Amino acid sequence: MTRSLGTYPIKSFDDFRNVAQLYQYSRAILTALELDLFTAIGARTRPIAALARRLRADQRGLDILCRNLAALGLLVKRGSSYGNTPLVRTELNRRSPAYRGAYLDLITNHWHDFTQLTDSVRSGKPLDADEPESPVWRRSFTWAMHHRSREQAQTVARFLDLRRARTLLDLGGGPGTYAMAFLSANPALRTTVADRPAALKVAREIAATHPAKARLSFAPLDFMSDPLPGNYDVVWLSNIIHIYAPAQNVGLFRKIYKALTPGGRLLIHDAFLTDRQGLYPIDTTAFALTMLLFTDTGNTYASRDVMRWLRKAGYRHVRLLTGMGKRKDGENALIEGRR
Ligand SMILES: C[S@@+](CC[C@H](N)C(=O)[O-])C[C@H]1O[C@@H](n2cnc3c(N)ncnc32)[C@H](O)[C@@H]1O
After folding, report:
1. Whose CA is nearest to atom 23 of ligand 1?
2. Ligand 1 and 324: CB distance under 6 A
3. Which residues pair with residue 207 across a beta bridge?
4. pTM of the model
């Protein structure tokens, strides 16, 4: 019995076949999301016949799907009944407050986008190269960022010591999830979320019920072409640098430098590559494919290179912050530079 899907580096034809067909598992999960199967199961264990009636699906089809989801560890099989695991009951269940709906929609939509990867590899251009940015897309993407980052924002806010800081700029802050977590953890802090107007609309909606909303302000801008407003003790740059090319990032770091108070900190939060060849962690390498599909110049970068860019832009005391998670770089890692 094989329990592992992780057959890379590929060494045999069997390994190759396993990895080349991993889409079967992706597709099974996305079909479950499209059927809203996890919500239909909810907190109970349900017989397959009842589930099939409820979802108006063929019983054999649904059973094959559920067996696969159980083999993946998403469902628990008891005879011919299925229940949700705790993860699924909360984060994948529409009726739970922890539901990550907008992020799940983003992942589901990527299925179609990834079928066009060959075109992007050939052209080097994103899928929507000729289309202007749509406010509707930006709105759903911004909600997706919120549903992705809620817990990570709490983790970062607990980890970072911002007691000496009075002002923080969340640059490209999208829904403002991180800015709001910093406000909750630091009663003396004031934060500004800077982003495109359509993203800030979502941030304003989320902030409306936040207890510290009086200490939060918004700056609609394009940070590549507009000046940065004000001076800040901290600039928080989360999941931004992978959208841009190295030279653009160095330019942005220089611009941020001028917006920092003396001794102020630029904190970069992103997924970094960790090895000399730029291959691992493999999920960070895979994320570069998403950047190819959706950005003109984006990519994923090694922490070592990003630290070098910071020094080039004039920052001192450049370092990788350790201690937040298991891995010191890779996804959700932090690099700091000081003015
Ligand atoms: C991947 S999201 C990250 C959102 C948030 N910082 C987080 O970590 O969850 C990137 C954000 O940067 C914003 N952004 C990218 N380039 C920008 C630019 N040139 N001017 C303003 N905002 C920009 C996008 O609108 C989006 O909200």
Report:
1. 172
2. no
3. none
4. 0.95
